[in-house]
Amino acid sequence: MGYSDEEIQKFVEENRDIIEALMARRDARDEADADDIKEKAGARRSRLQEDMGRARDRADDTRYRLEEDIEWARYRADQNRERMEGAFRETYEAFTDPEVQKHFMTMGLNFIMGMSAFMRKMPGPDFVKEAANDMETSWKKASCSSNTECSARKRKIDIEEDDKPEGIVPITFEEDV
């Protein structure tokens, strides 16, 4: 059931005051809603800006702490590198010290002399004992040729004949090589 234009026109004319009042109320409500929306949007914008400011501050603070941590790590790495270089330098100097080298050489020569004496004392074929004698003579010559303080020049090794197996001849070194 539809209304004709004339009926609508007549209704509007009779109820104009009510219609205008309703429209004014709706406009006021729309305006209030718009103001409310604007106010809420403004409040949200303010909160968002505050949150962004706090986030920016936290990011700046984090960046600052990170830069400090990086600087501290570099400082510690430099300290550790210097400490390790110092320790390496001290170790290197200790190993290359002439006095230490002299003792290491003496220790090595004494070990070879001990092994040579051991090989001569052990039961076994004569060619092994001869090889031990030849080896000892060779290293004595090589080690003492340029070292006037060679310990092999001053040492005397006597192999006692008490427990000597058959075929072993005692060897005495007391010569200057």
Structure description:
- With 177 residues, the protein is an all-alpha fold.
- The protein contains five helices and two strands.
- The chain has a two-stranded antiparallel ribbon with strand order 1-2.
- The termini are far apart.
- The mean pLDDT is 81.
Overall pLDDT level: 81
- Taking the alpha carbons of the first and last residues, their distance comes to 141 Å
Profile the largest sheet: 2 strands, antiparallel
Q: Name the poorly predicted regions.
A: none
What level of helicity do the residues show? over 70%
The DSSP helix count reads: 5
Overall form = rod-shaped
By DSSP, the count of extended strands is: 2
Could you tell me the strand content as a percent range? under 5%
Instruction: Give the SSE order as H and E letters.
Output: HHHHHEE
Radius of gyration: 53 Å
> What structural category do the secondary elements indicate?
mainly alpha
Strand order of the largest sheet: 1-2
Helix and strand topology:
Layout: H1 5-14, H2 16-96, H3 98-121, H4 126-144, H5 151-154, E1 157-158, E2 172-173
Antiparallel strand pairs: 1-2
Helix pairs in contact: 3-4
